[in-house]
Please model this.
Amino acid sequence: MDLYEYQGKQYFARFGIPTSPGGVADTVDEAVAQADVAGYPVVVKAQVKVGGRGKAGGIQLAADADEVRRHAETILGMDIKGHVVHRVWIERSSDIAREYYASFTLDRSAKKHLCMVSAKGGVDIEEVAATDPGAIARLHIDPVDGLDEATAASLVAEAGLDEEAREQAAQLLVLLYACYVEGDCDLAEINPLILTTDGRVHALDAKVTLDDNATFRHPEWAEFAGTETLDDRELLAKEKGLNYIGLSGSVGIIANGAGLAMSTLDVVNQVGGTAANFLDIGGGANADVMAAALEVINTDEAVRSIFVNIFGGITRCDEVAKGIVEALERVDLRSPIVLRLDGTNAPEGRQILAGHVSDRLVVEETMLGAARRAVTLAGGAK
Amino acid sequence: MSIFVDEKTRVVVQGLTGSQGRFHGLRNRDYGTQVVAGVTPGKGGTDVDGTPVFDSCAEAVAATGADASFVVVPPKGAPEAIIDAAAAGISFIVCITEGIPAQDEALFYNRLRRDFPDTRLLGPNCPGVISPGKCNIGITSGDIALAGGPVGIVSRSGTLTYQALHELSQQGVGQTTCVGIGGDPVPGTNFIDCLAAFEADPDTLAVMMIGEIGGAEEERAAQFIAEHLSKPVVAYVAGVTAPAGRKMGHAGAIISGSQGTAQAKMEALAAAGVVVANNPTEAGERMVEIVRKLG
Model:
């Protein structure tokens, strides 16, 4: 789960990472009230989960309440790369002397944590990595060892941070590492990390991605729920515990396992069709999950046929079959189902379905055959 | 021959008393796998359908001589179970658990490497390993595999592993061993480990590799194949049509920037001399052609 900047800063604050004082606002009046608390001049920042806010005019400096009012009016409701701004973050403006970069993420190739620090912050770090790779100091951290302040200190020195910023930056890195590990982040990034004209180092931005798999040990993450940018169907799928991504085609896809689901999309595409979605019902899905998946897809009016592609491992085909039968009884499905069923308990599954096969429920032997059938039922190849 | 597991492998199922552990553990046993013990802390002294249950892997190993473990434990308890198995001297651990936090995975991966360098972990979030006719550890349905070789399979995706087995078995082409390495960010065993083992196995004559979007493991495997593999390889990479920036179910399956696209992986593999197929069925057909030519 990606956090908004304001959520990321609040998350940082839990771990003692210094940020600018500020608050969120959903209306112009709230924005002015927050600015009054933070103290002028303030920065009004659009809260969207997409880069390039500044260039789009989503970040504005305001010297007084009138300017806050004017900027908040413009920014709230603004469309930034398809993301409508519903909330702004108001914080005290900082006098910036230097802009740095710091982040922690997992390096999957090295199978260790990777810390990156650069004295060239404030800009697109991928651009820096491409044009001036030497400007980024990198350190692999073995999670068994962790990160101590001495190691952090030599890293910030290697990165060429200004002398007066080094001690604070090293301390901040240790805190950010704790946030990244104990806070179960996939990514904890500060860009820019600033040195102010009065010699303080703090986070001016926050980019945090939380690891959804760790939700079970973070009850406090509940406050972030409901602020995700999901459409209605994605929300419904999430409520049902399904892994759903909406696309724009006409063949609804349900498969078990991410790999098979991706492959199903590919095969539908190869035989001339277009997928309406990605939907992985996961391992061990039962009848309820299957029925819920069909319900979710049924709300998509662009769907003309539904391709259910199951290869049972931990998922048992008899359970899948029961779910389909249940869904046929419970939901008024607008589109025909093309089913392909193999693997664990497949014969039992086919037997359960035997009495229900019709022009609304077609069973195909192979994945490719089922894809062709589903595309035909959806109106033929594009 | 086969790689990693065979008819002599003695398996302890961690979590045998749970519903998933019981279903898959007993199914592995029915397949002919030597499932010699179960482990569930607090349930030592009981049994599951005649297979004795112990409180710890150390006790199970002492009593039964188990040398492999099958971890069927929920995400919260899986890291501890894996370390328990390694500390007991078990040399091959299969963890099918889905949903383990990445921080935990990174920690136990590095702890294993440091403290138990002779232990191989397969997974987490993988379907397991099957050497058809000899040993099946994991959640793969045994009846879709065909004994006798000559193809070795390595796959990052669970259900596509089954699909690959199915495509070959349907055509009467058997497998030496099929390894599902799993789609998580820190897999214990990777493509290269399996490719090297297949290269060393005299009975494996060709290798089928199933990859997916995200990361750079397929690209690294391509380089390894170019430098070290004398045997023919057929590959399929899932996710050609996947949109960038969205997690496709596996924590690993995400395209960020221009990295990790299916197209880039397919090109790297083709450049390494691998036969690259556009879908699992085609991969099966290409492999059948190769095996028929090998005689």
Q: What stands out?
A: Residues 10-122 of chain B form a domain with the Rossmann fold fold (CATH 3.40.50.720).
